[in-house]
Write a structure and sequence with these properties.
Largest sheet: 4 strands, mixed
Radius of gyration: 15 Å
Order of helices and strands: HHEEEHEH
Strand order of the largest sheet: 1-2-3-4
Oligomer: single chain
Shape: globular
């Protein structure tokens, strides 16, 4: 796993966004938009030899907040622990941010095992399962 911007294979990323693999995201409308997406996010490439087989990005201020999104591992490489490894690498980065208040991700749950990985690696909880606490606001979505 690398977070070096030069290691992001834009052709592979463009193909993934255009495929059913990344079904939740509308593909960027142009190559320039894809480049902006990468430049304006903290991106991670999962590489095997010279091939980018997975990707994830954080939309973040690099201090207090990080939104994990666009996570994928190519189908032919799933089931070997690579997604978990990528999440552990990202978790290692986030652990070094002393003022991180909140991380957010949105998942459909499903049977892919991704939700369980997020729970194990990040300690993620479904917002509906979180006990109510004084002074803690509710999560609302702008769609």
């Amino acid at each position: 796993v690398t977070d070096s911007p030069g290691d992001i294979d834009l052709d592979a990323l463009e193909a993934a966004f255009a495929s059913p693999l990344v079904w939740w995201a509308n593909p960027p409308s142009s190559r320039e938009q894809l480049e902006a997406l990468v430049q304006n996010s903290y991106c991670f490439a999962l590489r095997l030899d010279t091939e980018m087989v997975g990707f994830a990005r954080l939309v973040t201020d690099y201090v207090t907040f990080a939104y994990l999104t666009d996570v994928y591992v190519l189908k032919e490489h799933q089931g070997h622990g690579l997604g978990k490894f990528m999440m552990e690498c990202i978790h290692g980065v986030l652990e070094k941010w002393p003022d991180l208040r909140r991380g957010l991700l949105i998942t459909n749950g499903g049977s892919s095992g991704a939700e369980g990985t997020y729970r194990k690696v990040f300690g993620a909880v479904d917002i509906r399962e979180r006990p109510a606490k004084e002074g803690i606001g509710e999560l609302i979505a702008m769609e």
